[in-house]
Amino acid sequence: DCLLSRGLGDVYKRQVYYSCLATDTRFLRVISLLKIINEENLKDWAKEIFQKNSFNMVDVSSKKETFRRALASGKIYVGKDVFELIKNKEMPKGDPITLAEISAVLGVKKTSELIPLCHPLPIDHTATKIIMNNEDNSLEVFCVVSAVAKTGVEMEAIMGVNAALITIYDLSKIVNPHLRICLLYTSPSPRDKRQS
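Above: the chain sequence. Below: its structure as tokens.
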């Protein structure tokens, strides 16, 4: 039995050896082919492939990390009835302002997951302020985002405002489904304008 098991062990070892040898041979063949292609040819080859695709994430690998900050704002017109209910904290589904501020933080953090070509950024700070305007029965949302990164944070600020506005809409439509969300506005920092 011992001799038999030792014989089988030797066969297994030989099989592993030849398998590794074949893998190494294929690897060396690939390496020898790559040596024929110089660096410039490789760059052109890669560029040609990726240019055929209409979507691509901007390459920011050569950029330096700098301080980035952006402010975005938006407004939702809720009507007199909803406005008074929010003001008096009597909304059926709860306080839209408090929940909208939480949603804004989630919107900022999830931006790269929702917008396909956005770079995932290490957010250092975000804050949201919601102002109630008695004149036109509207709620105005402001979201500021800052980070030390290679690209700007405008998209994160916009997503924060979007999340807040949609949350207000969700909690208010039970009272008044005819709500209007106005166009968003963004104000990047001067550094974003130059380098984003």
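Strands lie at 66-77, 123-133, 138-149, 180-181, 185-188.
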